[in-house]
Design goal:
Number of strands: 4
Strand content: 15-25%
Distance between the termini: 22 Å
Largest sheet: 2 strands, antiparallel
Number of helices: 3
Structural class: alpha+beta
CATH class: Alpha Beta
Strand order of the largest sheet: 1-4
Helix content: 40-55%
């Protein structure tokens, strides 16, 4: 499972994702977004692990 935060460009600058920008998400909110990419091989155990880690860190 991979996660990406922001969108790095060639200059090394991190900026708001074009998708979030097109959706009208404010930069202050969007820069705190995390995108998770799931694939066919992503397992239920991996999803449960991510959910557990997020719960631990956000609570």
């Amino acid at each position: 499972m991979q996660h990406l935060q922001g969108l790095p460009y060639h200059s090394g600058e991190v900026s708001l994702s074009p998708v979030l920008e097109a959706m009208g998400v404010a930069k202050e909110v969007g820069m705190g977004a995390i995108r998770f990419s799931l694939g066919r091989e992503t397992t239920k155990d991996e999803l449960n692990q991510v959910i557990q880690l997020l719960n631990e860190r956000l609570n």
